Each structure stands twice: as structure tokens, then as C-alpha cells.
Amino acid sequence: MKTESLSGATREAFLGLLDDPTPQVRKALLAHFVTLGQPAVQFLQEVAHGSHRILARHALWYLDEIKFSDPVAEFLGFIRSLNYELETGALLLSRTVSPTLDVAACCMALDQIADRCRELITPPATVREQCRIVNRVLFHEWGFRGNVENYTDPLNSLLDQVLLRRKGIPLTLSTVYLLIAERLGLELEPVGLPGHFIVGCFTEKKPFFIDPFDGGIFLETDEVFALLRANKIVPKSTDLMPTPIREVLCRNCRNLVNHYKAGGDSDHAKLFASFVEEFDATYERHTT
Questions:
Q1: I want to staple 243 with a disulfide (CB 3.0 to 4.6 A). Which of 45, 130, 156, 192 is the partner?
Q2: pTM of the predicted model over 0.85
Q3: Burial 42-71 (b: 16+ CB within 10 A, else e)
């Protein structure tokens, strides 16, 4: 839905400045948004739910700064937009639990990890070689790991808390891995296995997989199938297909439903169950 309160010229001017990193520009633009109030919020929400990944991230930052947005409404709007982008979606999801989440700090944390990887990557390097560098930085230098001691802690499923505590579950550690890879220009994909979550690379002659929950171990196709069989799951070739971002975020919500229930927090369990229902309803509306 377009924001009628802002003229086309004003909208274009804001869009042209939204990703400007200059402190003076950001301060002035923030002051304009605060003065405009709700029309500015509606404009920023529209951009945050749009298909332009970079502008969406900046719009989310401004929304966080002016504190005018309703995090639950924001995430529902994102779900209904069908413009699914992993980083924006994961941060919006986290804001439903922590409305004062510092979006810029989360993005900066990911940027710092990616910057360190760039320092160590010597071109030309294959995707697999670059992933080895990501493993070294993420799991050894930064110390990210699977939270095997308290797997059902809901904080394991919230991106900001995973970045802060450097531990999570397979889905969120895979999310961190993918967001770093994206910054490095690596074409990796989320792979939602039955009962587990890994990262896949399908750009080389033979696909290979990475398990961030297990320290970034590399897996070949037969090894992934063996992992499934070990968990009493009959593997299918479709299990290795890339998982759509919509399903990654919906599965994140389902995990939170289960983990909040396990912790006796029925209110948050109901909230994330409503997000799962909205993902399903939105998908059904646009596929039938």
C-alpha cells in the first residue's frame, strides 16, 4: 500500500537518502521522520517490506531509531508482503520479543565477521576454500557454537541473542553463516532437513554441505543421508533441496512455539503460533 500522505517527490528524495551513511545526513533524515510522524512510519514500513534488500535494512534501522513501530504489526506486515529476505525477516522476528533491539549493532556484528573473513581470503579461492575461512573465523576466532546444554532456550532462536551470546541451534547458526556468506558474495543456500538444518552449496560440480551446529563440518551428499538414517529418518533426494526463505522464517517461528511451550511461556508460544498461521494463510492465498 502506497503512503498517500507523502508526495512522490518527497518519497523519491527519501529513497535517495535512505542508504546514505553520512552521520549528518542520517541525523537530519531521522529528524525529518520524527517530525512527519505516522506518514514517515508508513513510508518506512513499506520500504522495510519491499524487495530492495539494502533499503529495507536501512528503513528498519530508522524505524528502530524513532521507536514508532509496533514490532508485531511490523512482522505481520513482512509476512504478508511476500518479499522475504532473510536478514530483515530474522531481525523483525527478533524485535517481536525485544522491541528495543539495536538493529545497527546486529548488522555491524555480521559486517565485522565478514570483514575478518575478507582479510584472510586470498584470491583466487574456491567456494569451499572460502567456507573454510568462514569456519575458522566464525567457530574458532569468534567462538560460535551449538547450545547443546540448553537446546530449548528460546534465546537460541533469536538472531540478536545468537550474535550476542555466540551460541544457537542449527537453524539460527545456519542463518548467521548465510548472512556472512552473502556479505562475501558466496552463493550458499539454507537446507532444512527433517529434524536438522544445514547450509548447502550448489554452484560447484558436486554439491557440498556445511553443518554450522557441528563447527562447520563439511558433508557430502552420502554423509547427509547417513546423518538422517542415524536419526531413524529415511532420506529422500528432495531433503537436500534449498529451503525457501519463507519456510526458514516459518520454521524459526515453529521452533519458538515449541521452546516457549517447553519453558511454560504460553503468551509467547501463542504469539509465534499466530505467526506460523499467518505464514501458512498468506502462502495459501497466493498459491490457490
A1: 192
A2: no
A3: bbbbbbbbbebeebbbbbbbbbbbbebbeb
